[in-house]
Design goal:
two-stranded antiparallel sheet; binds zinc ion; four-stranded parallel β-sheet; 6 strands; about 240 residues; elongated; alpha/beta; single chain; about 15% strand; about 40% helix
């Protein structure tokens, strides 16, 4: 009987593998970075790209370039970005896949990877709630997902910290503004974001999450709203940091 069960299990496994291979042949899953077809044991990003991702290790470096962006602007406990973003590098390709090629699961995957690192950090491991930078609802409807929230979901899973996705809402669809300078002036006004259910956030150390940090203007506007609440502390992480 045990022998029969083993044969049945093996047959099931063999069939499943065969089906998986067939699906891969018809719809090859590509590496989000180099676009090579992935092997069965690889997920979202091929092993070659994965080991050569330009990690910043900013989470281990107090006073890193992302933290410096907020000096004199917002009182941020700690800030970091997982990867370096430069035009034409692997990270640009990955972010493009996440945002425009309907692959939110890649953002989740990166969140899982980075969350495993952040749990070893004295500061980031004390965060009690994750809040992603929100998209305006019209934009969310168009895209179907918020890439920052997908990254946040990966962090939520690996850091075991709840994500409160509805706590911060975006009142204005500023990204329709083509002139970036104007957009950033708006951001600095700080009236773009609004807090929902503030009681839930009081006295918490919040981890604010974005996809890319460039000038820090968006994060600053979000953080300043949150810092108005009693006892709130804010730390920041993003998938990537790009110099401007
Ligand atoms: Zn690759």
């Amino acid at each position: 009987m045990i022998g029969a069960n083993r044969i049945l299990t093996k047959t099931k496994h063999w069939l499943q593998t065969g089906v998986d291979d067939m699906i891969r042949l018809l719809y090859p899953v590509m590496c989000a970075s180099c676009k090579a077809s992935l092997y069965r044991h690889e997920k979202h990003i091929c092993n070659h790209c994965l080991v050569s991702l330009p990690a910043s290790n900013f989470h281990k470096e107090p006073g890193n370039p992302v933290e410096k962006l907020f000096w004199g602007r917002s009182h941020i406990e700690a800030a970091a970005a997982f990867l370096y973003f430069n035009k034409g590098n692997k990270v640009q390709a990955i972010l493009h896949e996440i945002k425009y090629n309907h692959r939110p699961e890649v953002g989740y995957f990166l969140g899982m990877l980075y969350g495993n690192e952040l749990t070893k950090s004295d500061v980031f491991s004390t965060c009690e709630a994750i809040i992603p930078v929100p998209l305006h609802f019209a934009k969310l409807n168009r895209r179907g997902y918020n890439q920052s929230a997908e990254f946040g979901r990966g962090l939520e899973k690996s850091m075991k910290i709840p994500m409160l996705e509805k706590s911060l809402i975006r009142k204005k669809d500023t990204e329709t503004q083509t002139k970036k300078a104007r957009f950033e002036r708006w951001e600095n006004v700080g009236s773009i974001f609004q807090i929902n259910q503030p009681k839930e956030l009081e006295n918490k150390h919040i981890l604010l999450v974005d996809d890319v940090i460039t000038t820090g203007a968006t994060i600053e506007a979000c953080a300043n709203e949150l810092l108005n609440l009693p006892g709130v502390r804010v730390s920041v992480v993003a998938i990537a940091h790009t110099k401007h």
